[in-house]
Amino acid sequence: MQPLAQSDRRELLTLARSAVEATARHQQKPGFDPAGLTAGALAPAAAFVTIRQSGRLRGCIGMMRYDVPVWSNVRDSAIAAARDDPRFEPVGPAELPGLEIEISVLEPPVPLPDAALFEAGRHGIVVERGSARALLLPQVAGEMGWGASEMLEAVCRKAGLRSDAWRDGATRLSVFEAVCFSTDEG
Known about the structure:
The protein is α+β, with helices and mostly antiparallel strands. Helices cover 29% and strands 25% of the residues. Strands 2-1-3-8 form a four-stranded antiparallel sheet, covered by helices on one side. α1 (6-24) runs parallel beside α3 (70-83).
């Protein structure tokens, strides 16, 4: 993954906020001119957008598209996090002033040959078994106070699997790292 300049981070946060606001107001997806972005924000990379209100999760969805520019994945993830997260009602206009936005730009996942190599807080985790699949971002471990085994159990439950499914050889595990930045960084 190419590094993201501080100016790109600000532009991506502005884009995500604009997308959330347009979605909450039932407006069209905001236009965006990527001409001012550096190579890092123009490069293909997966991205997640997390929306919080007063520190509490309000929506989180990502686009695992590694063939689309990161700015496009940020915009589409922001729209989906505001409108399509099944855990929450869509974000409404009255909520907009208090929302915090966090963006996670993901490295491509790589197979984890041994669960003992998983590092909670450094790695995000993807679990797959049959049609069941789930992902947890690296920062979830710190937010929840989880170590490696708790993180592995949680991603299995999120996928609808038994919490110890990660121990079974038929379950595929992959890890990734992410660059995270948010509106509260100043």
